[in-house]
Structures are given as C-alpha cells and as structure tokens.
Amino acid sequence: MSGDSDCTRTSPSAGSPSDNEFLPDRPKYVCSLSPDLITKAREELQEKPEWRLRDVQALRDMVCKDYPSLGTCLDDAFLLRFLRARKFDYDRALQLLVNYHTCRRSWPEVFNNLKPSAIKPVLESGFVTVLPRLDPEGRHVVCIRPDRWTPSNYPITENIRAIYLTLEKLIQSEETQVNGIVILADYKGVSLSKASHFGPFVAKKVIGILQDGFPIRIKAVNIINEPRIFKGIFAIIKPFLKEKIANRFFLHGCDLNSLHQNIPPVILPEEYGGTSGKLDISAWNELLLASEEDLLRDFSQLVLPCDSSPHDMLVSGDADEKQCDDSLRGMKPQLYYCY
C-alpha cells in the first residue's frame, strides 16, 4: 500500500463524522484506554475523545497534502501515536511522523532486515529487556545493560536495533502511548574501549530517533553504576539533548537508595535492591520474538518511495557524519581523561 494510493483514497475533509465510510479497507479504531487513562490523556495530552477521529483525519489530510509520497501507514491507530506524542499539535505531530520515516531511511545498518529473529543474539545477551511489572505511574521500565555486550561478537548497531524493536513493541499499547516509559541503564563494567564505540555520530543518530523521531514519551532515564568514563559519554550526548530531556536524566552512581526514590524496589529485581526476584530476560525475549509477524506486518505498510524523499529532514547525511567524526576526534582526549 503506497502513500499515493492512500492519499488518493482519503478524500473527506477533516472533521467529517463518517470518515471511515470512505476507507473500507482501513481498520476502524476502537479505544482500549480505561476511563482513568482517558481522563489522563485529556488532561496531559489534550486528547478529547469526541474530537479524536477528527484530529486523526486532520493529520491524515496534512500528510496527503504536504507529503503525498511519504509512504506511511495512515491507519487511525498508527497516526494516533504521533498525535499523542506531541499533545495533539498537528504541525509537531506531522514533523515527528516525517522524522520517523527519515530516521528509518537514513540508517540502513539499523533498519534493513529489522525483525526480532535477526537480533536474537542481542536479546539472549540480556543487553536490553523490559521489567515484568509497571511502575506506580503505569509505565514500563526498559532495562539496558551495556556490560552484556561484547563488541567482537557484533557491532553496536545491533544493540540499537534491539532497543528500537523493543520500543516498537511497547508503543503498540495505548497505555504506553499515554503513560510513556522509564529507562534504567546499568553502566557497571563499561570500559573505555567499549565507550569508544558510542561516538558523536552514533550518539546523534540515537538521540535523534529517541527525541525527535519516535512517537514515545520518555519520562525518566535512570543511570546506575556509572563509572568515571560516563562523564565523557554524557559530554558526547548532552549537546544533542533538549533541555527537557536532559533534566530527566538521573545519575545515581552506586546509591540504590537514590534509585529507589525514582523506581520503587517492589518492581525492581534483586540485582538493583528490589524484591521481585532475579532479573529474568526470558519472558520479554519470548514476547518480542513471538511478535515478529505483527511487527513485520506493521513495517510492510511503511513503503520506501523510489522517486522522492521528505523535506525538512532530521538527518542530513554525509556532512553530518563528517562533522560528527571531527567532533569525536576532539572528544577522545576527554574520554581518556575521565577514564
């Protein structure tokens, strides 16, 4: 299904009460939010249930008018992710959607052959997993452990693929779209040689995706067991962070009590002073691997156009890569100093 065919078929104006009658092959949206989450979405995201489909249609019309060859999915549920991530601001939601596609098309090492079975070694290593219990705000906790990665086994891009697929799976849930997620990153044992793989070029790409190119709300990033080298890593990351996101980073060192002020022990594994037993990665791995068919079906609707590309791109290609390589050469002395 191409973006052109979808846009050709999408003729009703925004606010039409019978939009879906014109789109018989597009799934009809059914809200799965609880009454409490509907209220939360109204208060925090400016989502009004009585206007929801009108807002979706308005975004769909903007895509068809401004980016007719974007090649995106135009289903109600898919577009809602972007509206919620940008608090129903049409222009910002549209830019996020364009950035989403730009990121996917500008980094083939990450997005080619993107499926759970292709990153099975990363999942089995325990580099990334999702804790089984939600936090008190109803948010999933994504646990990242760089020490589980052996660079000689596979490149850093495989880790990024695993994180991206984890987020794609999580964002399928409307609850996650409203509540957002929390990240717990354990930097225990991260050496200088391992940190050197995460230079400014990779940092800019990853931050660009998480901050401006993916429809998810990252509510907190908790760093635990960070070594001195992390000062150098954060110096690389910080220039690419917006102030709001930078303020959501919490550095706890080895202080588990500090971590517990942000994430309660009842949902944490024993490894982090919690009471929910040993960290078990098998349940999330099985869930993600079992979702491969659904994810591939979703990705199949994201068509890469061969004759055009979106403007206002988030990533500008070779010039940015050269600039970031130059920045990395300048950063290396700082990394050695921190180490």
Automatic annotation (TrEMBL):
GO cellular component: membrane
CRAL-TRIO domain segment(s): 115-280
Region: Disordered, residue numbers: 1-27
Superkingdom per UniProt: Eukaryota
UniProt-listed SUPFAM superfamilies: CRAL/TRIO domain, CRAL/TRIO N-terminal domain
A Pfam family the protein falls into: CRAL_TRIO
Start-end of Polar residues biased regions: 8-19
One MF annotation (Gene Ontology) recorded for this entry: phosphatidylinositol bisphosphate binding
Protein name: Alpha-tocopherol transfer protein-like
Organism: Charadrius vociferus (Killdeer)
